[in-house]
Design brief:
Elements: H1 2-27, H2 35-49, H3 55-65, H4 73-80, H5 82-96, H6 102-125, H7 128-150, H8 165-182, H9 189-198, H10 203-225, H11 233-254, H12 260-282
Helix pairs in contact: 1-5, 1-10, 2-11, 3-12, 4-10, 4-11, 5-10, 5-11, 6-8, 6-10, 7-12, 8-9, 9-10
Length: 289
């Protein structure tokens, strides 16, 4: 019953999101997306489905290639990856959702969305320098998490499909905070996986929770970001077009592959991008970037 409700709500939200995005693109006379944005969306969402995460590598590439101003990155990430993440959520809910405690799943989704609703207006009004600094620090944290994963320093997790009330509310509070940080372009997957694993949940069952939390919060905040000035709809549409089929390929055809070497490559690229962002944030002319 809960699974059916979530999938129905996800479908309705996706349709609404597409309509609003298309109307905004037409109103702004947005050009057709370039091949680089489409390829970027395909690559990062393919590996996101396999557990790499999409926000940190996308931020690194956008910054490295100077595809959009720094202050445009959080909104571009949340809107551009929304539809692929919604597809990913539907896949994980169908494949693994039936094994997750429905109460834990729903409460984490609601908490993440609530946090994002609080964080979105803060990001929209934040000075460019603040956005640069927050995203730069987030990339440093992401690089550390990637390195920890490769060095087997991440929590192993347990075998539980549900959490006792005290631990469940810790998970809910954590998802509220992570949802708020998502508004600034800080990915939820890695910290959520760590938190749920530390609390004893089976790590495999963290995927439908993580994907669904992001799938509901990204379009929720995205409906606000779409109309903001600090967003690049051309890149957004390109990432969505490339990301959706890539998710399906990763989920149903590839399923798993060695990704440790890729994580080390991502660490290097992400650290470089973080250095550029923090350097820009420290300069007086950051407001013009």
């Amino acid at each position: 019953m809960v699974l059916t409700i979530l999938l129905t709500a996800l479908a309705l939200l996706a349709m609404t999101f597409v309509v609003v995005l298309v109307r905004a693109a037409i109103k702004r006379r947005t050009d057709a997306p370039g091949p680089e944005a489409v390829i970027l969306g395909a690559v990062v969402n393919f590996f996101d489905t396999l557990g790499i995460g999409s926000f940190a590598p996308t931020t690194a590439w956008l910054r490295f290639r100077k595809m959009t101003p720094d202050s445009f990155i959080p909104a571009t990430l949340n809107v551009g990856h929304a539809l692929p993440t919604m597809v990913q959520s539907a896949v994980f809910l169908v494949l693994l959702g039936v094994h997750v405690d429905p109460m834990l799943l729903v409460l984490c989704i609601v908490a993440a969305v609530s946090g994002a609703v609080v964080g979105a207006p803060l990001m929209v009004r934040a000075p460019v320098r603040v956005v640069q600094g927050v995203v730069g620090i987030a990339l440093l944290i992401a690089a550390a998490l990637y390195a920890m994963s490769n060095l087997d320093l991440m929590p192993i997790g347990g075998t539980a499909t549900a959490l006792e009330p005290r631990l469940m509310w810790i998970a809910v509070a954590g998802h509220f905070i992570m949802g708020m940080l998502m508004s600034f372009g800080i990915g939820l997957y890695a910290p959520a996986l760590i938190l749920l694993s530390l609390l004893g949940l089976d790590p495999r069952l963290a995927f439908p929770i993580m994907a669904s939390a992001c799938a509901f919060l990204m379009p929720t905040t995205g409906l606000r970001y779409i109309h903001a000035e600090r967003i690049d709809l051309r890149i957004v549409i390109g990432m969505a077009l490339g990301g959706i089929p890539a998710v399906l390929v990763a989920a149903f055809l590839v399923k798993e592959m060695p990704i440790e070497p890729l994580r080390w490559a991502v660490v290097v690229v992400v650290l470089y991008a973080a250095a550029l962002l923090l350097r820009a944030a420290s300069k007086r002319d950051a407001l013009t970037t």
